[in-house]
Specification:
The complex is a heterodimer. Helix content of chain A is about 40%, strand content about 15%. In chain A, helix 5 runs parallel beside helix 6 and helix 8 packs parallel to helix 16. Chain B starts with 5 loop residues before the first helix and ends in a 9-residue tail after the last strand. Classes of the chains: A alpha/beta, B mainly alpha.
Chain lengths: ~500, ~100
């Protein structure tokens, strides 16, 4: 049977169906692995040993009773700490919420539980999902399992690192500007941002409500598709949820066929500022897809160059109002309540103590962008640029079925490298941000290692709104062709982590 | 000339209800200045006749039937409160003394 932590979700499911392994055994194997390597990786903020084993035992009992179970029943998962889980500490990586136990489940969590997925614990992230490295977490940085001196990406670095460290076969992330796809690229794993509104935001601690999208993370395309199917679909608790059937993502991942598919390479997402090793792997992947029968053309999206500045107006504006709820009154941290201080003073002291530097930067930037006198020049103009970016996509999709680019301009950088340079940090998300602004589906799939540093490179695919299945079609085809070439998946090239007990 | 002064940053901090220290102000003001220069690039785009997009997808208001549904109990709602009293959130005084 081999090491249970090296299996895909699909393989684990088969082992449970055939009776070769129980969910309790599988869950325990992953908890042991977390115990052995998470001291070095720090992917988890909270491990729910008791809860996970209880969920696993419940699935085993149902299976023994002959109940019909879904394909992911009994498979363990790592949950980004930005989604609420009833009674389990949820911090969003912030001191503001230290020790907070939400009294309800996010919709995504409800659906995971209903599908019998076993939630191992909550994963580390940049505070309130603001960042690209997990260095903004109030609870320490997560380390990239490929090279512990490097960042795993962010904000969902904990979820992706948990996959790459074999601490979990599945994970949930949330993507506002690239927080699923960029860590996916940096850790050699699959990260999918579904169409905005395709997955529910209910119970997701909001960063920018018009951009936030929960999505699946896994080590293989098919595993991600199976997880996508579990969490996606209309939710009446989210007013921006799309009331349409979930795209046929699992079929597409199984079909994994690109013959006749029209693929557009985005001209503007490459060249200056892009690492040679990233571009080399990207272009090889494009060639491979051409050999598999895809029709590849170059397309231009001239307004993508303004996506980053527009994003850093829209996101902070929405964030500054969303984070106003952390006011020290109803939940979370309260500082300076000495009986003398006024509520306003307590609020000021609490927000000073509870928020980290990046969160303060973005709240202030948003407050500035929304102030009278600046609104039209900043926020209003950014919203117009958003329209132009969406039109670039529409025009491109008249010519092609999907667009592709590198997922990130560089591979994972060293811890500490960009902490004092916010703009260098923001540029991580150059390729991923346009899809958040336009709301379309997008994903990163592993496509090799850069020659300069041996670190993973991500292949970015962008599909039209509610055509999420196209991502899996391309990702599945690429994964199969590359596995043939390499004699296994990319993750099998990752170095062994030192195990401590 | 910086696009935002230290005094303006201090004013923003008051609006955002964050008690910034002098050190933080010294650090934050030049950083915000750089970031504002970056985001200011949106003004290069000729977009006078372009409609703004507040949301990626066309959305309409969503209504539901006016029926009771299960909700949090008072104990659940107060479970994360920094201070509670008589089934209510206890907050610091909201009026200034004079």
């Amino acid at each position: 049977m081999g090491d249970l932590t090296r299996k895909t979700a699909v393989e684990l499911s088969e082992l449970m169906t055939s009776g070769e392994a129980s969910s309790v055994e599988i869950t325990q194997a992953h908890l042991d692995r977390i115990g052995a390597v998470d001291g070095a990786v720090h992917a988890f903020l909270h491990v729910d040993t008791e809860g996970a084993l209880a969920q696993a035992a419940a699935v085993d009992k149902k299976r023994a009773a002959g109940e019909k179970l879904g394909p992911l029943a009994g498979v363990p998962l790592a949950l980004k700490d930005v989604l609420t889980q009833d009674g389990v500490p949820t911090t969003a990586g912030s001191k503001m919420l230290e020790g907070w136990k939400p009294p309800y489940d996010a919709t995504v969590v409800q659906r995971l539980k209903a599908a019998g997925v076993v939630i191992l614990g909550k994963t580390n992230m940049d505070e309130f999902a603001m960042g690209s490295s997990t260095e903004n977490s109030a609870y320490g940085t997560t380390h990239n399992p490929w090279d512990l001196n490097r960042i795993p990406g962010g904000s969902g670095g904990g979820s992706s690192a948990a996959l790459a460290a074999y601490e979990a076969p599945l994970a949930i992330g949330t993507d506002t500007g690239g927080s699923i796809r960029q860590p996916g690229a940096f850790t050699g794993t699959v990260g999918v941002k579904p169409t905005y509104g395709g997955t529910s935001r209910y119970g997701l601690i909001a960063l920018a409500s018009s951009l936030d999208t929960p999505g699946p993370c896994a080590r293989t395309t098919l595993d991600a598709a199976l997880l996508h199917e579990v969490i996606a679909g209309h939710d009446k608790m989210d007013s921006t949820s799309i009331n349409q059937p979930v795209p046929a993502v699992v079929d597409a991942a199984r079909r994994a066929d690109v013959a006749g598919l029209r693929i557009g390479v985005v001209k503007e997402l490459g060249g200056e500022g892009y690492q040679p090793g990233v571009e080399a792997r990207f272009h090889e992947a494009v060639e491979l897809l051409t050999k598999l029968g895809a029709e590849v053309v170059e397309v231009s999206c001239p307004h993508f160059q303004y996506a980053l500045p527009a994003y850093y107006l829209i996101l902070p504006s929405e964030a500054s109002s969303n984070l106003a709820k952390f006011d020290a009154m109803r939940y979370g941290l309260r500082v300076g309540d000495d009986g003398e201080n006024s509520a306003e003073r307590v609020m000021n002291l609490t927000r000073e103590a509870g928020f980290g530097a990046e969160v303060k930067r973005r709240i202030m930037l948003g407050t500035h962008a929304l102030s009278s006198g600046y609104y039209d020049a900043y926020y209003g103009q950014a919203q117009k640029v958003r329209t132009l970016i969406a039109r670039d996509f529409e025009k491109a999709y008249e010519q092609v079925d999907v667009l592709v680019s590198p997922a990130t301009p560089t591979t994972a950088f060293a811890i500490g490298d960009r902490v004092n340079d916010p703009i260098a940090m923001y540029k991580n998300d150059l390729c991923t941000i346009p899809s958040n602004l336009a709301g379309n589906a997008a994903a990163s799939f592993p496509c090799g290692l850069a020659d300069e540093d041996g670190m993973p490179v991500g292949f970015h695919v962008m599909a039209p709104v509610m055509r999420d299945e196209l991502l899996y079609q391309v990702g599945g085809a690429l994964e199969a062709a590359l596995a043939d070439q390499w004699g296994g998946v990319l993750m099998s090239k990752a170095p062994e982590l030192e195990v401590t007990r | 000339m910086p696009s935002i002064t230290r005094e303006e940053v201090a004013h923003l901090a008051r609006l955002a209800r964050i008690e910034l220290s002098d050190d933080e102000l010294d650090h934050l003001a030049p950083q915000l200045d750089q970031i504002i220069a970056l985001v200011g690039q949106v003004s290069e785009v000729a977009a006078d006749d372009i409609p703004p997009t507040s949301h990626a997808l066309p959305i309409t208001n969503v209504m539901r039937e006016d029926v009771n549904v299960p909700c949090l109990t008072p104990e659940q709602a107060l479970s994360g409160a920094p201070a509670a009293e008589d089934q209510r959130f206890r907050v610091p005084r909201i009026l200034e003394e004079d």
